[in-house]
Amino acid sequence: MKHLLSIEDLSYEEALSILDTAHEMARVSDGPVKKLPTLRGRTIVNLFLEDSTRTRISFEAAAKRLSADVINFAAKGSSVSKGESLKDTAQTLQAMGTDAVIIRHSASGSAHWLAHSPWMNGSVINAGDGTHEHPTQALLDAFTIRKHLCGGAGDLGGMNVGIVGDVLHSRVARSNVLLLSKLGANVVLIAPPTLLPVGVESWPATVSYDFNREIPKLDALMMLRVQQERMNDYFFPTSREYAQYFGLNRDRLTLLKQNSIIMHPGPMNRGLEITAECADSARSVIVEQVKNGVSVRMAVLYLLLAGSSEIASAVNAEVNA
Ligand code: ASP
Q: Is residue 223 part of a domain?
């Protein structure tokens, strides 16, 4: 594997190998010295041309924990804000001897374009391209579900996962549907018809418009952010009505099974798709998702750049040193 561009490209075995490697990486993050020497001397560029908090700092922390040199590059403050093209940016990064580029961009397909451009020799990791995919978010979500509900090993066979809300604009939803179904989970998309993409019937998921009817069946409930910045039309009458039919609130929380978990990729619109009470409840694993993101991204960087899956012995040597 040279690049991580979409979940679609990953085999079942590759997906599981990333989750298993992330499990080992979590031991490093939980240890006293949160660092492995594995990527010493490698240069990784964080090319974030669209806003991000969690994903950007998570990749930075992951690269640093593997001892790589990290260059952070954002649109604001760079020549991209002067209109420089992705091609010229790519040539500049290549000239600096970059081993991997982590790219976030508002255009769907930008990561694929960069990976296959003649100006890029290194690995490319998609950190979110438009409304297309966000593969590392799906991997960290699968890791979190596996850890809480499947004993931290194997696949997600038989798990029932509900993904609720603005599926139309969500790269997180698309990547999750592809990955969770690949790993054996049953996925149901719960949304108003206006927030479902054309062709959703061909996705490996079922669709429901009735949130209350689905909740009691779910093992994991994943709420999506209403992506107002991508909306150039009216998709629901009022925020109040959206929250009433598709928001997670105290009444709906009581319908959830005893051990089910609540997830959200962040950033949250508290009071719209999820109330503060639910976001901060004991069932919520939202903050833990952020923590798991670092381990998963360490695993991805390790597998792409160090090219080996013999991580357990390296971690043992460090943790026991
Ligand atoms: N942070 C996620 C993303 O970049 C989810 C969101 O923005 O709603 O896609």
A: yes
- Tell me which of 35, 54, 270, 283 is the catalytic residue: 54
Residue 82 appears among annotated catalytic residues: yes
Residues 267 and 142 in one domain: yes
Look up the domain containing 47 and give its range: 7-132+289-307
What are the DSSP calls for 151-183, one per residue? TTSS--TT-EEEEES--TT-HHHHHHHHHHHHT
User: Is 318 a domain residue?
Assistant: no
Is residue 87 domain-shared with residue 127, that is, in the same domain? yes
Q: Compute and round to an integer the Cα radius of gyration of the chain.
A: 19
Active site residue 54: yes
Active site residue 98: no
Which of 48, 131, 137 maximizes ligand 1 atoms within 8 Å of its Cβ, making it the mutation to test the pocket? 137
Instruction: Indicate the number of domains in the chain.
Output: 2
Angle at 29 between CA 28 and CA 30, to 5 degrees: 90
User: Is there a single domain that holds both residue 67 and residue 93?
Assistant: yes
Residue 313 lies inside a defined structural domain of this protein = no
For the segment 113-126, what is each residue's pLDDT rounded down to a tens digit? 999 999 899 999 99
- Structure token digits, residue 228: 């107002």
Closest CA to 75 of 48, 53, 98, 52: 48
| Same domain membership, residue 235 and residue 169 | yes
CA 39-41-47 angle, to 5 degrees, is 80
From 223, 225, 230, mutation site for ligand 1 pocket: most ligand atoms within 8 A of C-beta: 225
128 close to ligand 1 (CB < 6 Angstrom): yes
pLDDT digits (tens, 9 = 90+) for 271-314: 999 999 999 999 999 999 999 999 999 999 999 999 654 666 66
- Choosing from 21, 43, 55, 136, the catalytic residue is 55
Q: Is 240 a catalytic residue?
A: no
pLDDT band at 249 (very low <50, low <70, confident <90, very high): very high
Residue 174 lies in a domain: yes
Residues 268, 142 within the same domain: yes
pTM of the model: 0.94
Query: Residue 190's domain is classified under what CATH number?
Result: 3.40.50.1370
